[in-house]
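User: Hey, quick favor. My workstation is busy. Could you predict this chain's structure for me?
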Amino acid sequence: MARFDPSLIGGWVAKGFEPVREAFEHNFTQRSELGAACAVYHAGKLVVDLWGGYRERASAARWQKDTLVRVSSATLGPSALALALAHSRGWLDYDAPVAAYWPEFAEQHKQDITVRRLLSHQAGLPAIDEPLTPAILRDREALAAALARQAPAWEPGARHGYHFYTLGLYESELLRRVDPQARNLGRFFQDEIAAPLGLELYIGPPPESSARRIAAMLTPGTLQTVQGLRRAPLPFGVAWLRRASLTHRALHAPEAAHMGPGTELPSGHGVGQVRSLAAAYGALAAGGAGLGLARETFAALTQPVRAAPDAVLRVRTAFSLGFLRPCPALRFGSTSRALGMPGLGVSVGFADPDTQVGFAYAPNRLRLAFLGDERAEALTQALYTCVG
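Assistant: No problem, here it is.
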């Protein structure tokens, strides 16, 4: 076991949640953690608030209580909450056609795709054929037109596949169409969810005054990438390496990685304090009233969903209304009513209504892990020894 400096760990845990702190420390001593934070809400109360390690390796700057971290695809969870709030306000119906709110979306025979199918990764739109230049990404009308022109890769509703970076773009345009103020998703989330709950959680760039507090991400090298692919299911690894495959096209999006100032990617540009992500999921786990969600919306979100073969990830997954649900590829929560989203690295957040748990974890040492890795798993396993 590596030597461990206890002063590298900050924060606290409530009585009975000591195993989570032990697992958090073991991530540093046994699992090569660089810097990370973990937070848990239980029955509406913050019971785990931990941070530790280094915010930046080069300068040995320590991770602080207010350090921000990028959460990659875990951003899709807060994005789904924004759409759920729009549903609760009666602005959209999950079972109405997307084209009812966004007429141009009907191009390329997409007129029958419902909001539910789009948010559940069933629309056949995991990749965009048209290059999305920085100019297009900054122009909402031009981006909306490009999204509307995309033809489905399969018959909508006949199958599903992870819409890695595209779903957030479609979500933002849909929300802009139904919001009386025509806000994009990031602005809506900040105004209607983050600010009222006092969350420091952004979909898109944070204020310049906060940028200095963002943890520097350590990306995996070639060897680590190869090792990650070897650990992934073989069909996924093979498809990942084939440039013409739908998997490669859906998961390799240069425009998603290089979106500059003035653009947002609600599928992957989330940044904030980990306890804020946990707070959002904690409010959801408690029934969603604190988020402004109607009971009907909460019931729709937590309805169990069957896993099925994923045309992009090449394993059995389950998605519903913008969230990943427990499935063979990634089990989380205590029952099938849990809902959340992981991100590259692997950051993760989820709500478990049956134990009233809201969980979030994010590191700055990224790994090519297939949906989850041992660091997050160790924390969640320790958590459920505490709450049952």
